[in-house]
Records
---
Amino acid sequence: MNEKNTPKGFLFSTAEAAIKKPGRKDLALIYSQKEAVVAGMFTTNKVKAAPVKLDMKRIMSGEGRAIIVNSGNANACTGKQGLDDAKEMAELIAKGLNIKSSLVYVASTGVIGTPMPMERIRNSIPSLIQDIGKASIDDVARAIMTTDTFPKIVSKKIKIGKSICTVSGICKGAGMICPNMATMLCFVLSDISINKDALSRALKESVELSFNRLTIDGDMSTNDTVIVMANRIAGNKPVLYGSDEYIKFSKTLIQITDELARMIARDGEGATKFVEVSVKEATSVADAKKAALIVANSNLVKTAIFGNDANWGRIMAALGYSGIKMRENKVDIFFNKIQVVKDGIASGNDKEAGEELKKKDIKITIKLKLGKASANIYTCDLTEDYVKINAEYRT
Amino acid sequence: MNEKNTPKGFLFSTAEAAIKKPGRKDLALIYSQKEAVVAGMFTTNKVKAAPVKLDMKRIMSGEGRAIIVNSGNANACTGKQGLDDAKEMAELIAKGLNIKSSLVYVASTGVIGTPMPMERIRNSIPSLIQDIGKASIDDVARAIMTTDTFPKIVSKKIKIGKSICTVSGICKGAGMICPNMATMLCFVLSDISINKDALSRALKESVELSFNRLTIDGDMSTNDTVIVMANRIAGNKPVLYGSDEYIKFSKTLIQITDELARMIARDGEGATKFVEVSVKEATSVADAKKAALIVANSNLVKTAIFGNDANWGRIMAALGYSGIKMRENKVDIFFNKIQVVKDGIASGNDKEAGEELKKKDIKITIKLKLGKASANIYTCDLTEDYVKINAEYRT
């Protein structure tokens, strides 16, 4: 990414702490030169990683200066020791940067249930502090990857009053991805000046429309974290909730998280295809979302797409057990623009649709023809590589 | 199976109708020489196959004489034509056997959404009729296989009064298996004399404790059918609900369906291992069942087991998002007898547990330590072969 696309006043560094194994940067620091307004959303899993527990308390203040992130170890199911370790990571960063520890957030991703290798982390923190400013936001995106195959970063500029503000998001995804929230770490940084309440509402809305519309494997993680920091350096008049500027910012945030969510789906573990499931003409948005999610989580649908097989019967079966309001003889189904089901039965285009499925971008459109509500879910196909990656994950 | 293990008064035949492709018997007939008491349970999927719709009406009478079964085509999502085809199949059998059409049940399994190849079926029915008695119950179990790798049959004898009664069950499973009910066809035949109400209640109880405790891939099919026929030929005094004889019969039926359910799990598509998830000390049976089911349906748990990786963190994560009452720091987890989690954190036995996972029979025991309720779910591991089988199913 062009440096010009990085929001003003943020500095970065990365280090190799060999958390899971040596050979790559697995520790990263995000630092705002000025105190920032902060909002966050976290996993709704009852089993929460230690850093999530820590951040959920700290974020109540709405303020922050730094985030330390590691890959390779989730620091989840690690008991009291895990909490102590997360606190110590924040503490060491706070001392090194000479800021209050309560302004430091911690995010971890990786294996569950293994204690953090604190000695190696302690040894790496001095270089993280010393090197601050030497890394780019791209380097951070790379350091937080686990089974991701490419770094995920989206950046936009918006004009607020006379000020040009930059909003940049990075995230990691790949596996253990299911809505509420999608399993992942995501950090959005901006130099915009925005009121705390406005930032928090904009984040909530954008997550609902992006990461909460994403599933890779139906498994929800213990570590999902989205943190947004806005450090005011762009110098605009503070954006308030409900204003025109708010709407502008909110739209930009939605665009960024939507693009990141699509990237996560495209880079699902072992995925060869990006799949969007769009349910239309349902009786309620809740039904549309539920149906889209059940189709998107069906192993049988996902393997058929991997095999370029327009096996729409599996979609009909999934709709049937989804529990939503539906009438079999009203359902229409399309793979991209090719209709395979009309009024619940075959349209006779399976062969043509099978050819269409060879594309890398598949949109499954399901029309229930009962109402006016719709919802979309992003996912990917299920491949032999998904199994291979997850059978060998800890080895 | 020894012929002596077949209930008296049932005759069988099979034929090759090349429904999906030639080369195997894919049509079977079960015929009771005497009118039988019949009970059935069917898929709760809103999208029901034509034969399911037909059978659900006919079974209200509680009477039956014959079942025609085919593999290779599910006759689901086939509209009015599908219903006409199912009716015609029953009609042709009824004419050939000179019985009432309403006493003939139809069961189909295979591809969804493709019209039945009725010409080939019509041509095969005369030989089905002519050959009645030439096939064994084993041959029928073989003819109803789709992606199953072995036929599934369980037979028991019980003494009711002075009569020896035989109860034999056959089923097919393999994929699209999820409770309520497990996706499959199952036929239980007996020469016992039993009251209609008693038969129906015994079936319901046994299905709840067996097929409804089974998941392969979380996908519920459109065709699930369990039919039990009792033709009274053993000559015992009719068994009434609640009697000692009822309890004896009910226990036998539970044993049979439980063994069949375990066979289905062991023969899950691509499976290398039988997995039983046992949740104990939950606050309610509903919670215990829900938790066991969510763990059993987790792709991440199932791939870890395939990879002999005692990655219990994925089980903790699944428990956390299951929505049940749980306290992270109370959970104990065992792989067979090896404890991997104590009070929510590692017991340090992952390596030993990894060795244990190389076995073909894995029991995951989860103690929530909150109450006294428990539940078990049967499943299997998730392998690259599952993906391969389902990516190529229709080709």
Note: The radius of gyration of chain A is 22 Å.
---
Amino acid sequence: MSENALHSWLARRLAGGGERVLVGAGADDCAHLDVRGLTQIAVSVDTLVEGTHFRATDAPFAVGGKAGLSSLSDLAASGCRPLWGVVALTLRRGLGDAYAQEIMAGIIAAAETYHLAVVGGDTTSAASATTVSVTVIGAPFGERPLCRRGAQAGDILVVTGELGGSLAGRHLCPVPRFAEIKQLLTLAPVHACLDISDGLALDLHRLLAASGVGAEIDENAIPLAAAARALAPQSGKTPVAHALGDGEDFELLFAVSASDWEKIARAWEHCGIATRLTPIGRVTAEKGARLITVGSVKELAAAGYEHRF
Amino acid sequence: MSENALHSWLARRLAGGGERVLVGAGADDCAHLDVRGLTQIAVSVDTLVEGTHFRATDAPFAVGGKAGLSSLSDLAASGCRPLWGVVALTLRRGLGDAYAQEIMAGIIAAAETYHLAVVGGDTTSAASATTVSVTVIGAPFGERPLCRRGAQAGDILVVTGELGGSLAGRHLCPVPRFAEIKQLLTLAPVHACLDISDGLALDLHRLLAASGVGAEIDENAIPLAAAARALAPQSGKTPVAHALGDGEDFELLFAVSASDWEKIARAWEHCGIATRLTPIGRVTAEKGARLITVGSVKELAAAGYEHRF
């Protein structure tokens, strides 16, 4: 399949355009987008690399889906609704038509689920690994996007869903928490938020460092995914260690004031959203993160997944 | 060097922020950008792959520069001024600190030259080839961005600069034609425009197809780069064949009405812009592209650089 043929297929597949799309995918080197009436946009990019984030044997539709969803998860954590995405796809030579189309179909399916219009991209080929990079643009549900910074001493730290063991399968189909953050923002101001992509411990440290604060985390409060418990006997790690270090949970970690947390906790069960919210600790003026369990306090290192070059 | 260390270096390097940047590089998963008062934006992405667009032995600063400049060239061809860029960098493992920083320094230098603020990115590692993908966002100099489509029968087709032989060196340092397109737009409406990245023949066909028209090109009018003449004796191709097929010229090809072309040609020498404008042919209602030379007319095939998977 040639670049032109793939582009023609994509232009047909994406012919619907989308919200505020004036010139979309395939029609030009640039997409033209209408921003009238918007005050702020948020932009993020995430890359998946064969051999690192997915295996050559993974279904290409699922790989595309994961690429789209992990970028979308950044928008959700910023309290933004999705608007537009552009895709940079570098295909390992020899993978053929069906693979290229399947990877794009996976991205497009993820995009459509969350009303993101894929408005452009670039396709190239490489001798070795496939890489998929999705840039997403969104607009805040509220006045402005949320940040990692902004957590204040006394705030409650809360996570959505359950953590750990994503490699058992959940990592391929992250669920961006748009409904949850949109609902939260109607209930109370969120001081700081991010999505847990590199493990609770490392991402917690990022939120705390950006905010210039510390935290005490209750080890027993961390909500454990069934997969974290299931992997523990084979891995030799505790389920909590999986939750702290595995990454690719794509759950939200956010900080709200203690009084707002009480309000949110009371309202949440009536919101019609099944995703659990769990308070896991408290923001402190003293920096660093301390993991508290019955009768002991220990420093929590900023360990998690980091790329090394 | 770890992902976090590279990010800290980048955050320091990019601490200046930029126009309309509320939350910039390194501070968050998303950049937050002010779009108040803008009506349209244009978005484009371009990827460079080691082994395809650059060699492992090329200086990483130059590779980063080319990545930034080739994306910027798409904005110039759309008649847009640069606003923001995000970078997806996948580094071949083992390249080390200096290489990663040099590639980013090259991107940032290119960005700063054209007032593009690098506001975010994602860095990953791969076992094999390095890939650099730069997404750029701009806003139109005029009312709306320019497109490939819009050329009309009777229009004059014009190119900036000289074509062919970019592989002799020019391909590593493209010059996005911002000053030229901005000046052109003050002189007359531009009906259609693109940058010649895959060779005049292929990109001309793209412009004609998007516009639903054809063209007659005067073979002797095509402005030949010195490198196209220099390569010809070794390559066995004619200089014109280099100009038609080499690609990576990053010159503009645009269509304006015949009367506007006269106006532009008269005004251009007083504009203070050294870049030459050359009329190379005429848009026709009859589709296809015909290459006209003294005493003969031949079909011009849409040949140029295409990635094959």
Note: Chain B has a mean pLDDT of 92.
